[in-house]
Amino acid sequence: MNIQDALKLIDKGIAENLALKGFEAIYSDTQKKDELPINEEDGKVYVDYTSERGNVRILYSDNKICFQTEKDGSFVSVSASLFDEDSDEKDVKYISNEFNDCLDSRFKAREASKPAKGVKLPPPVSKAAAQNGSFYDPNTLANRYTIFFPELRDEYKRNIETYGDFLADEFFTKFGYAAVNTIRQNDKQQMKKFFNMMNEIYLDGTNEVQSLIAVTIFSQLNNDDELLANCVDYMDPELAAIVINVNRFLASKQGKKAIKLLENPPAYKPPKEKRQGIMQSMLNQQQ
Fold this sequence. Notes:
Blueprint: H1 3-20, E1 24-25, E2 39-41, E3 44-51, E4 54-61, E5 64-71, E6 74-82, H2 89-106, H3 127-131, H4 138-148, H5 153-163, H6 168-175, H7 177-185, H8 188-203, H9 207-217, H10 225-232, H11 237-251, H12 253-263, H13 278-286
Antiparallel strand pairs: 1-3, 2-3, 3-4, 4-5, 5-6
Helix pairs in contact: 1-2, 4-8, 8-9, 11-12
């Protein structure tokens, strides 16, 4: 197995733990967001991750894969495992487990925020109402989503408490990772339960809800063929087709340009004041 494939498997094996502890991969300006940012330098191959509590690195050097933490501006190895071209997936799984232990011993999971108090959640649209012609709205999606992911229930309440109303795009952009983690784990029972919910809400949802599901949440699959393949057997065909198209577009040159524009909108320029025409100037003088 080559080192690039090994690093991708290790990343997949520790992804949930990294997210739980607030870590994200570090990308340079030239690296694609839909690929693992693997760096090569002086015979070393590595991936860096960052959080508000520090940086960690997965490093390959001298036939070893190391888990490193940053201290005083330099990285220090806290675990090292032998790796060469004869190593296989079983060896990589062992390394992933070892690195998960390193994360657990050095970084606690993000502390749960204080529960939002006194927030009354908007009533969700019931299944009966949807069957009688009503449409599922963003609050219903958030309600059902946070029942499936109960650890996000207080975050839903906090969103409403913070903004005075539910900012759905902000919420699902931030917490869409929970759906991605479920898809990555690919547990048959959980996948069936999750997509039964998402299919139902998508098919009977408002246009905004359909956009939240297909674009805001599932665009976070980052056009990963393996993750998309995990979904196909569970997604409604209509939703699957749109999700695949959205992911393909966002991974394209045109899509990346659109994302960059959204992230860095042009500065606002006030409209130029129109000059008065000759007739208008004459009329003003006569008044």
